[in-house]
Write a structure and sequence with these properties.
Length: about 400
Amino acid sequence: MKEKIKRMQLLEIFIVSLRLGITSFGGPIAHLGYFQQEYVRKRKWLDDRAYADLIALCQFLPGPASSQVGISIGMLRGGLLGGVISWLGFTLPSVIALILFATIIQSFNGSDVPGWIQGLKIVAVAVVAHALYNMGKSLTPDHIRISIAFLSAIIIFVFPFAWIQLVVILIGAIIGLCLFRTQVLEESKPITLVFGKKLGASSLILFFLLLIGIPIIYRFVPNFHLGLIDVFYRVGSIVYGGGHVVLPLLEKEVVSTGWITAESFITGYGAAQAVPGPLFTFASYIGTIAGGISGGIVATIAMFFPSFLLVVGVLPFWNGIRNNMIFRAALTGVNATVVGLLLAALYDPVFTSAIIGPIEFSIALFSYAMLVFWKLPPGIVVLLTALIGQFAL
């Protein structure tokens, strides 16, 4: 009986994450909005505070933050296998699209984007706005935390650098320590895991061993697929600031080596932004261009594997850390900055890339009304907005 329940849980994780992988357009911040709607609001697998804590944790880790949040939620729901299945469902649609249909998607340039794709960009505005409203109510309930959120957004607007997000989070932590250390803060509900600190420590050790060891092995065993693993594991281990930061790092690694031309690189990057799911699946495109389907699969796994090791390594220690009085005060400030990050991202890139004129803005308002006031399921709202975009734009 328990085994059957476990299988049903894993199947549910895969179906839900697959649907998110098919419909989650708009980049990592939009992904967090979709996750909040599905995992927190609809299915109640975790509450707003635990969700915000996971976002804060993953913002501190290198790699794709939205994918790491999805992996973490899968692990909380279904253990290690649940994390793998959650990642697989969310990532697979993008991987398949970039491997099999990259040549078709590449044929669209900036002026020839189909209306339904533009509609999917527009609905991301409504989804992120709704997530911002819900998380703001929970995480910024007073004037101090509202001020932290707005200050964070302003800093990001004034200093538009990739690393500024990490700086803002650190500032939020310092403000939280100063202002909330003496206040009685509500303890976070403990997260339940099927693996413990021993596996977590082993995972962190393996992360660093591979980071150091793969380049050494590749130097003595110059195998092409091992070369792919070397490049993509290293990039996936050190990149901060979201998928767009991957661009200069990967360009230096794969264009200069002759694996892919500069023109193909930029074209593929555009294709990666036109499909749903994580932007890190750009690795699938590059790997396929360089070494066929097997190269695409190897590059994808190597790109995301560091995220698995880091999440498995940190989660077992998270309960003790997040309920420590000093850390909880810092985390209170960090969670307020998360709202600020979401506010900044609502404008750029979500709003600026989708809202070109009054027609697009009207469609975004209509999508928001469907989502918030009419209470339609997010999947239905996404589908309807894509159809509206196809016929109206």
